[in-house]
Amino acid sequence: MLDHFFAHPFLFPLLLIASSCLYLVIRNLLEYRAITKLGSFAPRAHSYLPFGVDILYRTIRHSHNNTDIDFWEWLFAWSPNKHSKTVEVGLARQRWIFTADPGNIKAILATQFQDFGKGKRFHEDWKPFLGDSIFTTDGQQWHDSRQLIRPQFAKNRIADLEIFERHVERLMNKIGGRGEEVDIAALFYRFTLDSATDYLLGKSVDSLDNPHAEFASAFAEVQKVQNMITRSGEFNALIPKGTYWAGLKIINAFVEPFIEQVLRLNVSYLKEKTNPSFLDALAATGIRDRNAIRDQVIAVLLAGRDTTAGALSFTFQELSAQPEIVRKLRREILDKIGASKPPSYEDLKSMPYLQHVMNETLRLYPSVPFNVRQALCDTTLPTGGGPDGSQPIGILKGTTVGYSAICMQRREDLYPPPSADFPTVSKYSPERWDKWTPKTWTYLPFNGGPRICVGQQFALTEMGYTIVRILQRFDRVSKYWQDGGAQFKSEVILSPKNGVQVGFWEREIG
Ligand code: HEM
């Protein structure tokens, strides 16, 4: 037998290739049978190279050019039915589904919540940064974190606006009042870091006053590398991680003394404490595990900081381009509380135009534009399959499903036709909210279902408070940023690509 191999040197490699091909054919057949037993296939985006290498290259190119939205639209164009935005792709031998259909997103997030989760891979990739926190886990582990964290965002906890006042005052002191050019986005990122650390730990990192503070730089670096790790999937071992480990050391060294301090206090004292920080409140529940506390605090910091800063930045980008919105918003603010009194939680809620401005920002610029879930069992998605795109799609355990709030919220077919009251979808117009409410599951800046953003009210309060205080002091906003080109980038969280250069004009007193 061995003689044959030596006599025919190509026999062994040929046999190897043939058996690999046979294995692949059988595997694909079995997979095909399993999927068709559950439902249909979605229209497929074709690749012209093995393993979808051309599509992988396309993803990387679009991500590099900050045109991810164009990549998703390119994918959706493979669907023959223009009202179905669900397609599938084979990437590195894995089947991926991409969707911007409200029915499918509702299934992933709510009606079939148990079937889809963040998955093992996400947990592993994020473990060094966020451990076993609310952000990285599924099932019981996630549920326990959610139970622990949710009460900290109850109305009575977020209606205390003292913290925002402290930091917004500092923010405004960095803005000249004679139209001087300032990158307001850069200031908002420092402002939300300061207010979030103050709220979470009871002590701010004060990055508005010390922009190069070690913590701020370390946090930014860790986020950047984490994003690269997440995007590179199977190949993440190739990402250099030196600055990542160094950054984590700095973050932990900053947070740990606060944890040590709070753990020295007894639970009954913490329960009675007036104005407790998030950390105090966590420790008051009796939790004593240092790592668990650290993970939850960092997770909430990550979830709450860039999201709110980005949304504030886009708001002022749009306000600077449309002075009539600034005038109308100021009128509402002055009528409601005047030019100097800080707004209360109730004041903010009773300013409809302010609420419409924030809704409109999050419609065009949802902070988490692209998101992903993994099928935790064999299941289906309700729509997008079959020749006319109306059949359920069969989904096998482990399939990755990408879904996009930004693509869905920019779909013209999900809105009323344009009219005098309702401008085209791409226009920033808070007025459209006067007589219109989006159909359910078509507007999801905070996600939906059991995993809906736990900080939604905190975020809207912080944003509203900041907008009101700025417009009480300044009555005009000049636009210095340039039109054209990609205006945003999406490294997990959407942010303005080149900052937001504007100028503020202090109102004349007297
Ligand atoms: C404009 C501001 C914000 C937006 C648009 C936003 C949006 C979102 C979205 C889309 C998710 C779902 C992520 C996922 O499951 O994959 C989420 C989750 C979360 N958000 Fe927010 N967020 C904002 C601000 C905040 C703030 C200020 C906090 C806290 C201070 C916060 C805390 C959280 C937490 C802890 C989760 C995880 C919830 C869970 O998995 O159960 N967010 N947010």
TrEMBL record:
Residues that span the membrane, as ranges: 6-26
Keywords for this protein: Heme, Iron, Membrane, Metal-binding, Monooxygenase, Oxidoreductase, Transmembrane, Transmembrane helix
GO molecular function: heme binding; iron ion binding; monooxygenase activity; oxidoreductase activity, acting on paired donors, with incorporation or reduction of molecular oxygen
SUPFAM superfamilies: Cytochrome P450 (SSF48264)
Top-level taxonomic group: Eukaryota
Needed co-factor(s): heme
Residues the record lists as binding heme: 453
Pfam families: p450
Keyword Translocase attributed: no
PROSITE patterns recorded: CYTOCHROME_P450
Family of this protein: Belongs to the cytochrome P450 family.
Protein name, as recorded: Cytochrome P450
Organism per entry: Alectoria fallacina
